[in-house]
Amino acid sequence: MTAIDSVSFFDTLASQMNTQPTVYEVLGDVDMDFAIVMQRAEADAFRVMLTFRGITCEGVTEIDAGDEARADFRLVGALDAWTAMFDDIVEHGHATGRQTLNSLTLLGDAIAARGADPLGVDKFFRFNQTVQAFVDGAGARAEVVDVEPAAT
Amino acid sequence: MTEDARYTDLPTETPMGAPLDWAWLRGASSEWGVQPKPSARGLTMMDIAVGSYGEVPDVAPRRTMSPRGADIEDPTPDMGYILNKKSDVWADNVRELYEEAVARQWSATRDIPWGDLEELPDDVEHAICQLCTTLAEVEMIAADLPAKWMWRMNHDFLEAKMFLCTQIMDEARHSEVFRKRALANGGGLLKSRDVGTSLLRTILEAKTYTQASALLHLLGEGFILDIFRQGELIAPSDVEKRIFRMAMQDEARHVAYGTLHIRYQIEHDPDVAEEIHAALDHGENVLVEFGSQPDLTTAIAVLLAGGVDDIETKGFPEQQALTAKLLTSYLARCERAGLNRVERTQLPLDLLGIDPASITAAN
Q1: Residue B351: pLDDT band with limits 50, 70, 90
Q2: Fold held by B86-360
Q3: Residue B19 DSSP label
Q4: What mean pLDDT do residues B52-75 have?
Q5: Does residue B248 sit at the A interface (CB-CB below 8 Å)?
Q6: Contacts of B336 in chain A (CB under 8 A)
Q7: A27 contact residues in B (CB cutoff 8 A)
Q8: What is the pLDDT of residues B320-335, one digit of tens each?
Q9: Where are the domains of chain B?
């Protein structure tokens, strides 16, 4: 069972995306690097850089504190918030209601979209459907995804 | 120009007697032998911007429709372009944005799951229909305005014109999808009042493309981008979520062009900043009137609250908070474009609890 704050979880999402070209071709090409930061209560945050080119996720790399600033944008939130989001996705097959990434970051309390350059943050909006479809991939692979966080 | 010796024995006249010089075959003076390398996604505008073909002049030498880089034979017809400086229209990301726009076109007919619409409570259906009525009205301004200026732009800045063509298509699609949603689920189009048209007229009647782009791309479309973000949040079903998410993607491209275009222009012609500030001084006031018009605000507040019952306890407070975020985003984009609006704006930052320091600091 795969914890969400792990490279292997995001590798699974990347594989999910890369084996569904028909889904992502419709959405169109992307060109972005974004980081996800999951803040753990008792330990350092988990940070992962995700690289997207065309209709594939080309890279999933765990990164050190501060490296997330290199991304076009970063999505930062407590592990509990990420868990709630992926719980919703696994339950419904895709994010619903206020658990979409746009909703969560718009309200800003649980997960925030940040970046040094507003134009980098705008890539979150320009490619939003692709980003959402990527995380929604957790719902398609529910049998191998366990949204319990890793032991700290 | 060196004539190619292989082509010396060609007809000198057509069968109808017209003279032939075969100049295009015997050695035109334009660059020949270009070998761009297609990238992974195919042959892009960035890939073919090689050698002399990638050079965009700071000032166009002619006012002709001849393709940039061609062997142009003077005299050429004067097309009367009035935007002949690169800084008048260019943005450093315009080629990438054009390719992105082409790759991410979607269909309001086919790509929205209209069949999944279900009956909504009456107040919620009214609210989404009012929101869509307003959006169906305003979206076409972002098609009308580029169209107004495009034919006045020098053809040497082809990529900027091509991008604006994609914007026109995007906005037609937005008008389409919001009109469709208003009519698709047992509701209809609702109120249209003068405040909306006043804003649109302000944008359309801007006297220069500089002012027009600032008003449209930076101010107006930045506002609409955030309305689309809110739309995705408040959407009563997955159908509307998809509509707003797809429209949001398009709008963000337009804002990206506008932000970097304004920045490019200010970098190359700093005196233009005051003209832009003056346009935004007026535009922000008109936008505040538009953004605070009761039809739009109450519709959004009802959707935030999930109905009229909680509008005062939930709808209006959440809307106030989102308005603060919206204006913060706009002011941050102005900073990125090289315009410090924080010092100059008449927007009610204090009233909305916006900290000016948060706008200039990294996000």
Answers
A1: confident
A2: Ribonucleotide Reductase, subunit A (1.10.620)
A3: B
A4: 95
A5: yes
A6: 117-119
A7: 104
A8: 888 888 888 899 889 9
A9: 86-360
